[in-house]
Amino acid sequence: MSHDPTRPRARAALTRAQVRGATAKRPWWRAPRRTWIKRILWTFVGAGALGLGAVVFAFATIQVPDVANGLADAQTSIVYYDDGKTEMARIAELDRESIPLASIPTHLQQAVIAAEDRDFYTNSGVSPGGIARSVWQAVRGADVQGGGSTITQQYVKNYFLTQDRTLDRKLREMVISIKIDRDLTKDQILEGYLNTIYFGRGAYGVKTAAKAYFGKDVSQLTVAESAVLASVMNAPSLYDPALGAKQQTNLSNRFGYVLDGMVSMGWLSASDRAPLTTLPAISAKAPSRALSGPTGYIVAAVRQELVTKLKLSDDDIDRGGLRITTTISAKAQKAAQDSVAKNFPKTGAVKDVYAGLVSIRPGDGAVVALYGGADYQARQFSAATDAVIQGGSNFKPFTLIAALQQGISTKTLIDGGSPLKDPALGNFTVRNAGGRSYGQIDLRKATASSVNTAFVRLNLKIGPASTKAAAIAAGIPESTLGLGIDPTNTLGTASPHIIDMANGYATIAAQGRRATPYLIKQVTSNAIDVTYTAVPNVVDAVSKEVAADVIDAMAQVTAAGGTGARASQVGRPVAGKTGTSEDSKSVWFSGFTPQLQASVAMFKDVNGVPQPLSDIGGIDELSGGSFPLTIWIDYMKGALTGEEKLEFPKRAGIGDDKVKTAAPTSTATATSDPTGTSTTTPTPDPIPTVPGPTTRPTVTVPGPKPTHTVGPTNSKPTAPPGQG
């Protein structure tokens, strides 16, 4: 049998066909390595072609703008009243004065280049190496001292573009930078940059920055001072030492980085660098001239809210072209300022005496008026939001809330005899004003006459912790200085801010709805990416029934015979409470109508130490029913002009079914109040009284026990030393 030479070939051909068939059925992701290499190469080629096309397209379509971006106008932040149209203030002043490069010291130019772009003279407007180094430092978690943007890019961004943090803006910045670098000399770019870069403190350009930080002309700067300016310009909010210890440390570190860079660039010798180990003397930050008069305190509070709520940096606020609509009513604010100017005492020992006012819209939290002082330029410490002031009898309504929550009627009889000694008080002795005794009175009468002994007895009955809890629920911060659970906390031993007390009373006026106070209604910007609209934060804190009975009791204060009877001059339903602390170191009137609340307080401060309000305006000792009430009345009249007269809710009568006897009726005699206006004061019931010294309401403490004062001796002062 002969061998067929075709058989092996046929067998081989069949084998290859089988292989081809197997390959055809293989999934695409299991392709041979050679195929994958080809695919990857073609992908890179395609991406490169697309990228090149995008670059060509960008260069063809993105042109250098013919004009600047209107920096001074576009980036000025403006604060408006609540109508969004009436301008209140410019939040930051923009100060700029351009000078030629020849007038700028060479060492300042070198310091800036060492700080911001050490490849400035060799790059083409952008620096891929700089960007890579910046990314690598960020990945390593190292302190990024040299940014990825060149001086040319920063100049383009500041002069032609905006501060938007978008890829589109970044692409335009890079393309324009390359074109600018092609069309201008390096000296022209550096001159433009040094005259437009922001240094903080409202200063644009090196000339105004030299004045802002060192009080001298730019030509007089030393090498060390130039290094400071070159450091600060990177991010003023991070490096201006006037902003805090952290910024001071940041500046010290960057100051060394800049000087070392000047050495490495051959611009500063090692021997000249060696003694430059500490920062030169830097001028204190002067208060902005925009923050003057009473509105300066509002703008300062608005700025603080921009930082805490919107998380904006100082740079964003100073340069961001913000349009800020506040909750402040122009009509109400004018009424506040006019009332304080008219009624603030002008005779006697008025030095170091301050007044503050905050008015809040109940159930919303919007601050419609704020008076922190006469001139922010003279004193950067707001009586409305910064000062801590002993609350006095303004705290008694919180005890009423706590009692009603336990089912105790405001018609419940309680002993108003004076003085009061009780084992629970230790060595404390509580007295009423003038040592007066009232006998058995109901809680409405005790509120109207501000009977100390009655409220301390009530507090002992319900538990002082209940009063504290009620105060916190109403809006007094838990961190308030002196807010404790001692039996006398009902007398206002705690020291809140005026805005805190205003919020607590606004909760009562809103029938138990507590809102977080706020000053900013809306924020927009045409320079940075900011859009904000406030949403009121409101919660149910106290029941409507409890609030209704508290309002009814507080309405007795403003009725005939109450300590705040003159408040009825407002000509509409009002309720409130007077407050006077020990030795009259603070006096209050807080009150409200259904749609508007206001708290007014006065205090005397000498270098951070509270002092008695004596011999002021012809009055031996002030009370809440004197100047604070007068200021409150005129404010409410002006602020409510044209507003609808609304009624308070009807008394709910919580616990009335448990009251067995009615309160005795007291007679009243006409007297003259400290301001000279005729009013009525209650006459004590004809029952035996316990003699006591004729002094203001006090809590005396023999021995080493704490006294009824603003707070412990090591507590935060009412005002910082030297600002009294």
Structural write-up:
The protein is of the alpha+beta class and 724 residues long. The protein is 37% helix and 14% strand. It folds into two domains: 94-273, Penicillin binding protein transpeptidase fold, CATH 1.10.3810; 337-648 and 676-700, DD-peptidase/beta-lactamase superfamily (Beta-lactamase, 3-Layer(aba) Sandwich), CATH 3.40.710.10. A hairpin with a 6-residue loop joins strand 6 and strand 7 (367-371). The longest helix is centred in the first third of the chain and has 29 residues, at 33-61. The chain starts with 5 loop residues before the first helix and ends in a 24-residue tail after the last strand.
Give start-end ranges of low-pLDDT stretches.
5-14, 19-23, 66-74, 142-147, 662-724
CATH topology of the largest domain: Beta-lactamase
How much beta, percentage-wise? 5-15%
Structurally, how many domains make up the residues?
2
Specify the CATH homologous superfamily of the largest domain.
DD-peptidase/beta-lactamase superfamily
The CATH architecture of the largest domain is: 3-Layer(aba) Sandwich
What is the average of the pLDDT values?
A: 82
CATH class of the largest domain: Alpha Beta
Q: Radius of gyration over alpha carbons?
A: 36 Å
Helical fraction equals 25-40%
Count of helix runs: 23
Shape: elongated
Largest pleated sheet: 6 strands, antiparallel
List how many beta strands DSSP finds: 23
C-alpha end-to-end distance: 128 Å
Q: Structural class of the helices, strands and pairings?
A: alpha+beta
